[in-house]
């Protein structure tokens, strides 16, 4: 049986103690926001279908959207959409060759977080 190349190397499997760079956090958040959007689209399409089906359906959806918990969910979906959009634009810019250095990647990640936070706050004001 073959022995590991460096068997004396420490193994840290505690995810709470691993220090990731800001670019990793923005990448993870981009993936999470994509999953949230994928799941949220089904709910939003059902609401659209119901509202377009009849005047009574439109009234039901309108009344349902008045609940604070529903507004919170809508704001969450808008937040995921806005973050995913901003992070996606960053990826497109990086595909064009800009911001590929370590410093450029960190700056781009910081800009994604700041711009997304501003847009999410504005979306919250709009929803509430």
TrEMBL record:
Q: Which cofactor does it need?
A: heme
Q: Which UniProt keywords apply?
A: Heme, Iron, Membrane, Metal-binding, Transmembrane, Transmembrane helix
Question: Which one Pfam family would you cite for this protein?
Answer: Sdh_cyt
What residue intervals traverse the membrane?
A: 28-52, 64-86, 107-127
Q: How does it sit in the membrane?
A: Multi-pass membrane protein
Q: Which SUPFAM superfamilies match?
A: Fumarate reductase respiratory complex transmembrane subunits
Q: Which superkingdom heads the taxonomic lineage of this protein's source?
A: Bacteria
Instruction: Quote the InterPro entries the UniProt record gives.
Output: SQR/QFR_C/D, Succ_DH_cyt_bsu_CS, Succ_DH_cytb556, SuccDH_FuR_B_TM-su
Question: Its function?
Answer: Membrane-anchoring subunit of succinate dehydrogenase (SDH).
Q: How does it assemble?
A: Part of an enzyme complex containing four subunits: a flavoprotein, an iron-sulfur protein, plus two membrane-anchoring proteins, SdhC and SdhD. The complex can form homotrimers.
Q: What is this protein called?
A: Succinate dehydrogenase cytochrome b556 subunit
């Amino acid at each position: 049986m073959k022995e590991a190349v460096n068997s004396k190397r420490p193994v840290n499997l505690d995810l709470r103690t691993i220090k990731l760079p800001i670019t990793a956090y923005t990448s993870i958040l981009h993936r999470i926001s994509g999953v949230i959007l994928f799941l949220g689209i089904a709910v939003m399409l059902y609401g659209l279908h119901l509202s377009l089906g009849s005047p009574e359906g439109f009234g039901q959806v309108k009344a349902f959207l008045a609940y604070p918990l529903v507004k919170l969910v809508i704001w969450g979906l808008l937040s995921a959409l806005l973050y995913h959009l901003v992070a996606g634009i960053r990826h497109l810019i990086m595909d064009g060759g800009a911001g590929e250095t370590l410093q450029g990647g960190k700056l781009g990640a910081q800009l994604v977080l700041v711009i997304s936070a501003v847009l999410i706050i504005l979306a919250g004001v709009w929803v509430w």
